[in-house]
């Protein structure tokens, strides 16, 4: 294959890779719509809010912890082989998730899905970088991002349709036929590729990163459950997680084959792009978590209606993601990313103004505007990250960007979910004062738990409904403002450090040897 012209079947290969990625992205967007049903005692598993957070984060943390290692293994043993194995694991774990009998089984099955996802994601971007020449790579990544946008678009409505007509496990079972078709197409169309000089594995780094992240997230979620941070159950795992992550950074700087090369952050183009991406995903994933309950419980929409209401967000990404590279080239990364970050931050802050009477048309407009702004952030950021590394390290670059995205998303769900939970519990204490202590604590954890108590009490519980709605909306406002403050941090990062229009391709080439030498 000529590196200047690329693989002759490269666009067909891209189509297969986008389809393969469909199951991974589809699953996470479908799950958002299904959360209320999974929390239901009768129709689902009776999962608490903290168990739902773990159902999301068990996947994300395993995914993020193994991304880099699987990227390196793919570079070493063959990216096509890694993609194929990842699809198989993801399909089997989806089957296990669909037939889970309790929340813990679902959490473990979702973690297994994370193993498969970690093998799939870096392989897709690495193969794209390998089969496309530099001149077409930005366009190809834009199409790849558009495919992700398509999955985001059809995920919620698909989830709503499945929940309305089948049992909750169908949202995972839908992955199985996609996986089977993908495996056939991968075997027939995708060429094998390897890194001629692959990195060595770093099992110590993998173990330290997973232990540190799980401990940190456990402490944060436990704080939301208890409604306080001044507890040994919260402080000990949180501080232990921070300490282990500090040890992880020290270890990664010390060895010459790190699982996550923290020295790469010395490259301004790389660090500003990856920092912006992390901040966006922190705010977005945390925001999506509370929006699901706002639409289905407070506003009273069915799962399929809630899924349909998310379409403007995804449609905007589908429309604008393929155009984002052109905008980036015309105005420069700094200006386009700064404006997009400002719009995203305003959209996040606008959730603090929503209540039970907010017109649905206004919500839809905000979803569309936020989706359009995010579409102009992700592809240029991904391209900047990939171009900051040598071509043969494509798997490594893909894994690093995805690791930051996934860890940021997990922390967003944990931190903003805990903020929402703490605020809700504090607001509901007076309304729940008449209930027995054990019931009072359980009912105060989330609006879902309160609604379950209302259902049990019948007519006596109706007095709790309006206070629960008010407490949730107030908690959503606090959470939205926290996410907007995180967005402001993103604006500062981009405006200060993202290279402008003048520092374009020639500067990317000048930066490349710096990173190559820093990796040893």
Mean pLDDT: 80
User: What's the CATH class of the largest domain, please?
Assistant: Mainly Alpha
CATH architecture of the largest domain: Up-down Bundle
- Structure summary, number of beta strands: 0
Compute the separation of the termini in Å.
27 Å
CATH topology of the largest domain: Growth Hormone, Chain: A
Q: Number of folding domains? A: 3
Secondary-structure element string: HHHHHHHHHHHHHHHHHHHH
User: Which of globular, elongated, flat, extended, rod-shaped describes the shape?
Assistant: globular
Report the total helices.
20
Low-confidence spans = 502-520
Considering DSSP H and I runs of 4 or more, what fraction of the residues is helical? over 70%
Characterize the largest beta sheet: strand count, sense, and whether it forms a barrel: none
Subcellular location: Cell membrane
Main location: membrane
Domain Major facilitator superfamily (MFS) profile: 13-502
Organism: Nonomuraea thailandensis
Plain-language structure description:
The chain is an all-alpha fold and 520 residues long. It folds into 3 domains: 10-197, MFS general substrate transporter like domains (Growth Hormone, Chain: A); 202-223 and 232-244, no CATH class; 268-395 and 408-520, Growth Hormone, Chain: A, CATH 1.20.1250. Helix content is 79%, strand content 0%. The chain has helices at 10-39, 49-77, 79-98, 103-131, 134-165, 170-173, 175-189, 203-226, 232-254, 268-298, 303-309, 311-331, 333-350, 360-375, 378-387, 394-432, 437-443, 447-457, 465-497, 505-518. Helix 5 (134-165) crosses helix 15 (378-387). The longest helix is centred in the last third of the chain and has 39 residues, at 394-432.
